[in-house]
Each structure stands twice: as C-alpha cells, then as structure tokens.
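ARCHIVE CARD
Drawer: 12
Card no.: 0347
Subject: one protein chain, sequence and derived structure
Cross-reference: see card 0346
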Amino acid sequence: MITIDDAWTNPELPWLAELVRRHQHLIKRRLGHGDLKRWARALKAIPKISKGNRTLGPSVGLTAIPNALERPLEAALLELRPWRKGPFQFGSVYVDSEWRSDLKWDRICKHIALDNHRILDVGSGCGYHLWRMLEAGASEVLGIDPSILFHCQFSAVKCLIGHPKAASMPVTLEEFDAGIMDFDTVFSMGILYHRKDPINHLERLKRWIKPGGQLILETLVVDGDDHTCLVPPDRYARMNNVWFLPSVPALEHWLSRIGFKSIECVDVSVTTSEEQRTTKWMQFESLKHGLDPNHQDRTIEGLQRPTRATLHAILPQN
C-alpha cells in the first residue's frame, strides 16, 4: 500500500534517514493538512502494478499496465488533482498536467551534465524533473517543496515505477538543513520570482552546492539591461505572489555579485499555451487567463508577457 511516507524513505539513499530526522518536526506539522486523509485514501486505492516496464521520460511512468487496472488507477490519480507538473503515463492513463514540463526539460537538458551527480531540486513539486534528472545520469536526487499534495503525487509515481534513487521532503529552502552534506547540482526552477528577497534565495542555494558544483536557475525575466528589474505594482498575470522579475543581464550580475562564475544564459522562452494550460488534471485558471485577450504579448495587467530564462552557473573551488 502506498503512503505519503514513501516520498521521504528510500533504503538505497543512506543519508536520507538522518535528513528526515533533522526535519521531523516540520514534516509532522505539514502532515496536519486537512485534506491529507482524502489524499491518503487515493494513495491506498492505487492498484499494485508490475514494475518491469518503467520509463523516465518524456512521459514518466510505465509503458504498459493490465487493462483491468487502468480505470481504478486513473480514478485514484484524479483524486490527487491538481497535477501541476508532468506529464506522466501508465499504459493508456495519461496524466496531462497543467505544465508540459517535458518541454522545459528539452530546452535545458542539452546544456548541462548530470552524470553521477547528487542533485537537490528546490521547489520540486510532484517530482517530474527528478525523474528526468535520473534519466540524464544523476546518481541520486532529492526534491524539497512544502506542499503535502505534491508529496502524495510523488509517492504515487515513485511506488508505481519501482522506487528509483529519489526522495522528496515537505520543507522549504529556508527550513532545509542538510548539515555538512552538499550537492553536485542544485536546481531552482520557477521559485525566484516568488521570493521577496531574491538575493537571499540565491545565497541559500549557494550554501548547498559543493565547490566546483553547478546551479541551474530558471525564473521569469523581462527585457532590459543589467539595471532592469520589474516589481509588479500588484498582480502579475493574475498571480499575487510575484515580486522581482529581473532582466537576464541583471540576473547574471546578481549571480556574479554573490560569487558564481562561468555564468551562462542557456535558454530564454516566451511561455505559450502549449506549455501551460488548463486540463482535465488541472481545472483551475492557467496562462490564458492571465493574458490580455486583445494583446497576447501583454499580461492582463499590461505588463510583459511571461518569459522564462534558464541560467547555468558554477561555484568556484576556492
């Protein structure tokens, strides 16, 4: 039977038990979520399926499952909505998440090397990118995200595909304490613009990168020079928790100022409705609701349409 605890247990990760112990008080607090009983019933209802045909991408899941199990599996996974990141597929059961996270991964994976890396993914959500990191050669991966629902989703996928060397914990970056442990690569994708203090976020990311390791940073940006940074007057594309949208040159300057080297912008992409949209698996408002219907290059507030940049940076040895 699948439980949420499967998210942060894995006998093949010897450092994980100590990490969970360090954060036990935070985990216990988050397990008090009012919807957890409903989500736990959904996890319990997921049928046991053979693990012999796993795929880690682009649609993470199982290439085939018994026909008789498809309907109960889909019903259980629908109880874990909304699915923000994906897609996942188990036989003919296709979890068509709000974000086509495979498109983002396709844009950035060719620019980074992850072979034999221990990776930390900050704001990992349901863990889609963790599986793609393993596919790209990572040796072990850890995601952190405060949402208990996302950890239920991660547990479901993890157990269905046979417990690869991955785990996730319901903590924020501000709460995270790995002791003397560090990581070859740290990812922060779609987080920086939600932070009131972006420099502090970058410093905290830096804390967990080993000397010579790398940061992969993806965030909303605007056009401009190294002095440009948009602070929305209120909402941005109807989101009420967006604070700082720098230009790419400004972001490169921030990273350089706190000690990163070999900083390179590897991708800039305007977000489209192919990549982010409402689906059966995420039925709330999405990108199109945040755009001006008469001027698709602007948000509903009249600001630059959502554009995302991914930067790669190295933490020097000394």
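Annotation on reverse: The domain at 4-314 is CATH 3.40.50.150 (Rossmann fold). The chain has a mean pLDDT of 97.
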